[in-house]
Design brief:
The complex is a heterodimer of chains A (about 325) and B (about 300). Chain A is mainly α and about 325 residues long. Chain A has 13 helices and no strands. The chains are: A mainly alpha (about 325), B mainly alpha (about 300).
Chain lengths: ~325, ~300
């Protein structure tokens, strides 16, 4: 595939596996991807526990990125620390609102959440284009180029240690995972969600409120994907342009959640693993100078490989 | 001044011109899902067939050869999908998304290898598959100038409906989607039927992708289908997996699309800043209809569930 796209295979392979460690900025990239994957996959995994497929993490993520700038521009009168928190909460709210539609349609009308969340991904891209071309566009760009202003340093998520490019988003994400682990895996909620997911009839029999479990898990999933949008903007990109719309992190998060077996800590390990290979693919694309879209093709192939590996180990555990 | 009849002609002609894409893909996905296998990678298959059509047509100048090449590409991906879904029994949603990402990236690689400049070569060599009919005013523009695939797609809807309700293979497709265990006991080879359904689905995505190459935007860009393939999933859900209702869903969706498209082109620069909001309308329309029509929608019982004998 790489050779086909015009690259040198030896350089390509070495940067695929070693690139994440050796390349400048590799560490930062891995942790950025880790934060994105872990945050979004936690949400996807949470909904999956209740048997719900959130294919729309990408849309909720985009809603989150848009809300960061919407809050930044329209609530600019707030003092610094308040605005800072408001931007993060705004992103979570954006993701939450974006998933509220499929949640309502699922809980109230019994509509299939897979279909609705997919549909809303497409709507999110159009909505994002609209916001970028008007309400949150940088006033500085005269030619109408759809891009926002760059967030000033005090609105960026700072590094933990000076120049090492690992931001506070990393421990915050891990903390979120651990908190969710105690809230979900160590309480009766796990059983409730699993029952709703595995057998709604049993859940009804046991007196578990299905709408409640569904609403909570779905809304949490949306808020988490929105938060991923905040960390992406405030901790890495600092400005929103159409490039962020063509990322597919939300789709990859689904695989991350599946490989992590829907377990709040397992997803963390799987997220790190994915961040490593996804960045490996990205660094390979840049070092041998093949186009970035190659990454998607490679990720597709890798996903099938990983799923197969996952399937084989699962089967061995059963027999 | 643009007359009302001109606008109506343009809107209706666009509505019909866009339908085959959704109908081919829709019929393919209906048969596939009825057998219990959802192929969420349909957009990846379409992108690969689209780029195949584009390159082969450009090299040979023959759109029919291009169509067959696209079918070949789609068939290969279909077989790969079927292997992983039926033999390895991978999660269908994850597998579909993997196929999508693969198609998204690989279609670009293929295109980029053929045209490293990134520029789309002149598309004049990609004519509609059947042209030169429409000299009759109004009727001619709306109906007769349509690509021959527009008619084939309508016939396909009828055939799919007959296939699923009247033929023995069609009934076997329904049986393995509703109750594979019982079907197996009755001597139906579950995975063979599912394989055929998946292959048919993939081939239809291939035709849809091939049609897209000539019908929507001339030229190739990365991610050119831009989520429209996924919309098919919403359409057949809305249509409760029924072929005729899918026709209705596709036509009404396209009508809204054509109306907003025509409005933007007439209103021009005055609405340029909100044109992307108008672009959202067809999707929002479909979304708004889901609580109305989707309530009664009932998926095949064993959709997404792999079957293991014994």
């Amino acid at each position: 595939m790489v050779v086909y796209a015009g690259g040198n295979i030896e350089v390509a392979l070495s940067s695929l596996f070693l690139g994440p460690i050796t390349l400048a900025g590799g560490l930062q990239q891995i942790f950025v991807l880790f934060v994105m994957f872990y945050t979004m996959a936690l949400g996807v995994g949470l909904a999956l526990k209740a048997g719900l497929w959130n294919i729309g993490a990408q849309g909720q993520f985009l809603a989150g990125t848009v809300m960061v700038f919407f809050v930044y521009l329209y609530l600019a009168f707030l003092p610094w620390p308040v605005l800072y928190v408001a931007m993060i909460l705004g992103a979570a709210l954006g993701g939450l609102l974006w998933i509220a539609v499929p949640t309502i349609l699922r809980v109230r009308f019994g509509a299939n959440e897979i279909v609705v969340t997919i549909l809303l991904n497409v709507v999110a891209i159009n909505f994002g284009f609209y916001m970028l071309s008007g309400p949150i566009k940088s006033p500085g760009t005269a030619l109408g180029f759809p891009i926002t202003t760059v967030l000033p340093a005090k609105f960026q998520i700072p590094n933990i240690i000076g120049s090492v490019p690992i931001t506070y988003a990393v421990p915050a994400t891990i903390a979120t995972g651990i908190i969710l682990y105690f809230l979900v895996e160590r309480t009766p909620f796990r059983v409730k969600a699993n029952t709703v997911g595995e057998s709604p009839e049993t859940a009804r029999y046991a007196g578990i409120s299905i709408p409640y479990v569904m609403t909570i898990t779905m809304l949490a999933a949306g808020a988490l994907a929105g938060l991923a949008g905040a960390t992406y903007m405030m901790g890495y990109r600092y400005e929103l342009d159409i490039g962020s719309f063509s990322t597919n992190y939300g789709l990859l998060a689904i695989i991350v959640a599946l490989v992590g077996r829907k377990h709040m800590l397992g997803i963390g390990i799987s997220a790190f693993f994915f961040a490593y290979i996804a960045y490996g693919a990205e660094s390979m694309a840049t070092t041998v100078n093949v186009p970035t879209y190659v990454v998607f093709a490679m990720e597709g192939v890798m996903m099938i490989g990983i799923l197969m590996g996952n399937y084989l180990t699962e089967r061995r555990n059963v027999t | 001044m643009i007359s009302v009849s001109d606008i109506a002609t343009a809107v209706l002609s666009t509505t019909l011109a866009l339908s085959p894409f959704y109908l081919f893909a829709g019929m393919g996905e209906i048969v596939s899902e009825k057998s219990g296998v959802a192929n969420m990678g349909l957009e990846g298959v379409m992108l690969m067939s689209l780029v195949t059509t584009f390159l082969v047509d450009y090299k040979t100048g023959n759109p029919w050869i291009a169509l067959f090449a696209a079918l070949g590409t789609a068939g290969v991906i279909g077989v790969v999908f079927a292997f992983f879904a039926l033999q390895v029994r991978l999660d269908q949603i994850a597998l579909g998304l993997a196929i999508y990402l693969f198609g998204l990236g690989f279609s670009f690689i293929v295109f980029n290898t053929a045209y490293p400049s990134g520029l789309t070569p002149n598309y004049a060599t990609l004519p509609p598959i059947f042209s030169g009919w429409g000299t009759v005013p109004v009727i001619g523009t709306i109906f007769l100038r349509q690509n021959v695939m527009a008619y084939v797609s309508i016939v396909l809807v009828v055939l799919t409906s007959i296939f699923l309700s009247r033929t023995s293979l069609g009934l076997r497709v329904l049986a393995v989607g509703e109750n594979p265990k019982a079907a197996d006991n009755m001597g139906v080879n579950v995975n063979k039927v599912r394989f055929l359904a998946i292959l048919f689905g993939a081939l239809m995505f291939g035709v849809a992708g091939s049609y897209f190459a000539g019908a929507f935007v001339p030229g190739f860009q990365t991610n050119i289908i831009a989520g429209r393939g996924f919309i098919v999933l919403a359409m057949i859900y809305f249509a409760n997996w029924k072929p005729y209702r899918t026709l209705f869903a596709a036509l009404s969706f396209n009508l809204v699309y054509a109306l907003q498209n025509e409005y933007i082109s007439i209103a021009g620069s005055t609405v340029a800043s909100v044109s992307t909001l108008f672009n959202m309308l067809p999707y929002v329309f479909l979304l708004a209809l889901i609580p109305v029509f989707g309530r009664k929608a009932r998926a095949p019982k064993f959709l997404l569930k792999p079957y293991r004998k014994g």
